[in-house]
Design a protein that fits this description.
By secondary structure, the protein is of the alpha+beta class. The protein folds into two domains: 179 residues, Jelly Rolls (Sandwich), CATH 2.60.120; 108 residues, Homeodomain-like (Arc Repressor Mutant, subunit A, Orthogonal Bundle), CATH 1.10.10.60. The protein has eleven helices and eight strands. Strands 1, 2, 3, 4, 5, 6, 7 and 8 form an eight-stranded antiparallel sheet that branches.
Amino acid sequence: MERSFVKYLPLDDRAFDWHIYCTDAGCKPTSAGAHYPPTPSEHPPAYTRNITTKRILNEYQIVYITRGRGVLRWQPDNSCVVEAGTAFLLFPGIWHAYSPDAQTGWDEYWVGFTGPFPAMLLKRGLISPERPAYRIGLQDTILSDFAEIFDVAEREPPGFQLRLGASIMQIIAKILTTSYREAQQSGAEQIVARAKFHMEENLYGDIAIDGLLAGINLSYSAFLRLFKNYTGLSPHQYFLQMKLNRAKVLLQQPGRPVKEIALGLGFQDQFYFSRLFKNKIGVTPTQWQSRMTGRS
């Protein structure tokens, strides 16, 4: 995990017009042996108080653990081990407690929300406080959804609650569907999925061979053949394409400097980024931004 983010969002009358609206979002790493939560001063007291014993919130939350392990407990007297690749849902008015293992720590992503839409899912039994944890594996597309949530929450552009609600609904749908698909994946599919997840998690920096091969019993040459057979690209080219796809989204923000986006995505040379973008996309970053924002 390369970034740390926390944001609590104001709710005005317009927010309540949507069927689902975001209250808070963030991501945080907790090192082995560190105090949990790692930075309590960044949160309102109601969110950190009793989080490791018995906490009750007035909202729903999705928590996604991507590294390490820990434990989740919930009402009335249930518990389960939480490992990397586990997402769990928290429900309003239902006590819960969770914390990472002191020997491993963990990396977590979360988003809080409320509204008629999650209440409808609960009423229809599509989500349930009796089964809050889902083993979904390391899903790069879910990380991408979280990245979109953090970006929109940070800027709060006009209509931001609608965009946040759409991303939250996507995450819920992916959790419900991938929890089954993960169990059906072949070993090769899981290896590729894990590599793509590692790339998404390091999208704003760089990737190392050791990170791609972590947890798999393959040589790099064997991994390279497997990855290219599934995606049609080498890991390096796939990673660059993921960066460019993210750049296309970021360039939709009017007035955002190309240099800032290039450096933020780990390109040390703005001109290399611009050449690569034009070679792969067909237009320069500036031209793409002008098209997407309607500026001449």
